[in-house]
Amino acid sequence: MADQQSAPAGPDLSKGVSLSDFSGATLLGHVGDQDVVLVRAGADIFAIDAHCSHYHGPLAEGLVEGETIRCPWHHACFDVRTGEATHAPAFNPLGVWKVERDGERIFVREKRDQPKPRVKGPVDAPGRVVIIGGGAAGFAAAEMLRRQDYRGSVVMLSSETSPPVDRPNLSKDYLAGSAPEDWLPLRPDEFYADQGVDLKLKTAVSSIDPRARKVALAGGETIPYDRLLLATGAEPVRLPIPGADQPHVHLLRSLDDCRAIIASADGARRAVVIGASFIGLEVAATLRAREVEVHVVGLEQRPMERVLGAEMGDFVRSLHEARGVIFHLGDTVTDIEGKRARLKSGGVIEADVVVVGVGVKPRLSLAETAGLAIDRGVTVNAYLETSVPGIYAAGDIARWPDPHSRENIRVEHWVVAQRQGQAAARNMLGHRKPFDDVPFFWSQHYDVPINYVGHAEKWDEIAVEGSITAKDCLVRYISGGRVLAVASIYRDLAGLQAEVAMEREVA
Ligand SMILES: Cc1cc2nc3c(=O)[nH]c(=O)nc-3n(C[C@H](O)[C@H](O)[C@H](O)COP(=O)(O)OP(=O)(O)OC[C@H]3O[C@@H](n4cnc5c(N)ncnc54)[C@H](O)[C@@H]3O)c2cc1C
Ligand code: FES
User: Is the pLDDT of residue 287 over 90?
Assistant: First the structure.
């Protein structure tokens, strides 16, 4: 995260810069103690806050496309004229500054009143929208409904105990102890009441009646809807082994799960992490930050090879080994007797805390029993509408026709879930815009972020530009001559350019 207290960057824009000093698409400067970035969009020059409203990413290093700028870190997109965060994971607008021109010089002296977002308003105004799920997709949908000036009723039902949180942080800074809990809520608690979003926590939906257009709650109450968004996400796979139900053996999905891991890790000497994929390895990194000895047990021969390929897998493994993580690959835990986790290969690891991260499965039971079309996920069309008109699905449960991979895909990515929530909200209001965003995810291992755009389940070639081990690379996953996906480490701009190239391919 950027240091807000550091000295202001670049030239003092209140004293002016000459046009000849501003040759690129962006120029980082400051006004007083505030960092401001000049953005050239065609013939116009705009000035906006220099730090992304998500995690303070450096927008001057982002990509300008038309009248938008994309953040280099997690690809949020902002309208440079209005400051609006048009694409998640950012939601808050950027401050927009007045640009004055005097001949060859540009001056920025004061902030403008925050411009209104370019909102189309509802085409169709359903009386009541019900959202099942208080996670990435559910939150983004509720926020977008209100941003689009939807005045009807919004009810959000969540089985969690807390309002929507920044779930990715639960396996990163918060779990490592380096982020305070007040970073986690996606919005302050009062947001929901202020925006007229009727958020009901600890509320499980037990069934949907598509004919009567009602959902039934576990407590027996029914709630009618005109449009319904299913955003029930995924749940961690439980290991069917003896001892997996002990209090020191954890899954990780919710803030409650995360708090329980932190409590177990407090004073722990040794941990076993079962699963060597994203969640497992991120948890391993956070436990090392807490100075716990960490053993990772995984069935695969190389971590993350299935998603990132062999060389990236070896690199990720070496990163963790350099921090002291001990791998037991090609192995699994067969039972946990008290603190003794027994390996299939014969050994025993005595661990104070065990975290199981062996994958997730989409929560489909509501959709199944309501009779919605299912294909290893809830089948949706390009507008994210299910086989039953008026019912939409978004996030980890949705399998949608992805124009980039040209396949029906389902992914488990934070940004995709949020953007699908945003797209579903617009479509519930009658905008009928296909969801065609290029999938994006990121993963963080110590100080190394891995960004990934596109979707490649298999490939026939991996082309590495730069060096993976030097942490400076762009890795292309190619099939039949087409680049299906690109992973990058510290080549953020190139990753953004790859995203735009994929968008243009289907435009
Ligand atoms: C620890 C962790 C770290 C992650 N890190 C990353 C990352 O770095 N990058 C990345 O791209 N992705 C990451 N992910 C994945 C990402 O969080 C998910 O893809 C995303 O949360 C999916 O959003 P969703 O809205 O579909 O589901 P969720 O965010 O899981 O929300 C589902 C909601 O539905 C509610 N619900 C389910 N069933 C019912 C019911 N019957 N009644 C009422 N409510 C119900 C749940 O309680 C929950 O509130 C991470 C996930 C976890 C768990
Ligand atoms: S910091 Fe900008 S998108 Fe995350």
Answer: yes
Distance CA 110, CA 66 (A): 24
Q: Which two tokens stand for residue 245?
A: 């139900």
Q: What is the DSSP string of 273-285?
A: EE--SHHHHHHHH
> What is the structure's pLDDT at 302?
95
What is the SS3 assignment for 200? strand
Pocket of ligand 1, beta carbon within 6 A: 132-138, 157-160, 167-168, 170-171, 204-205, 231-233, 252-253, 279, 363, 366, 395-396, 412-415, 417, 441-443
352-361 pLDDT per residue, tens: 999 999 999 9
Atom in ligand 1 nearest the alpha carbon of residue 366: 41
Beta-carbon contacts of residue 298 (< 8 Å; ≥ 6 apart): 274, 275, 276, 277, 280, 327, 328, 329, 330, 331, 332
Amino acid at site 386: T
What pLDDT, on the 0 to 100 scale, is given for residue 6? 67
Alpha carbon distance 502, 251 (integer Å): 35
Ligand 1, atom 4: closest residue by C-alpha: 168
Task: Output the CA 414–ligand 1 centroid distance in Å.
Answer: 8
Reported as a pLDDT band with limits 50, 70 and 90, residue 507 is confident
Q: Where does the pLDDT of residue 1 fall: very low under 50, low under 70, confident under 90, or very high at 90 and above?
A: very low
Of residues 260, 316, 282, 290, the one with CA closest to residue 172: 282
Q: Which residues of 327-340 are buried (b: 16+ CB within 10 A; e: fewer)?
A: bbeebbbeebeebe
Nearest CA, atom 4, ligand 2: 74
Handedness of CA 100, 36, 41, 418 (dihedral sign): negative
For ligand 2, residues with CB inside 6 Å are 52, 54-55, 57, 71, 73-74, 76, 89-90
Q: How far is the CA of 52 from the centre of ligand 2 (A)?
A: 6
pLDDT tens string 366-392: 999 999 999 999 999 999 999 999 999
Residue 15 DSSP SS3: helix
Q: Which two tokens stand for residue 482?
A: 């087409």
* pLDDT above 70 (res 3): no
Tell which residue, 272, 440, 427, has the closest CA to residue 343: 272
For 343, the 3-state DSSP assignment is strand
CA–CA dist 339, 159 (Å, integer): 31
Q: What is the pLDDT of residues 134-143, one digit of tens each?
A: 999 999 999 9
CA angle (290 as vertex; 288, 293 as ends), nearest 5:
45
Among residues 183, 82, 58, 88, the alpha carbon closest in space to that of 394 is found at 88
For residues 171 and 286, give the distance between their C-alpha atoms in angstroms, rounded to a whole number.
Answer: 7
The total number of residues written for the chain in this structure: 507
Nearest atom of ligand 1 to the alpha carbon of 235? 30
CA 374–ligand 1 middle distance (angstroms): 19
Structure tokens at 359: 């994958």
Nearest ligand 2 atom to the CA of 56 is 1
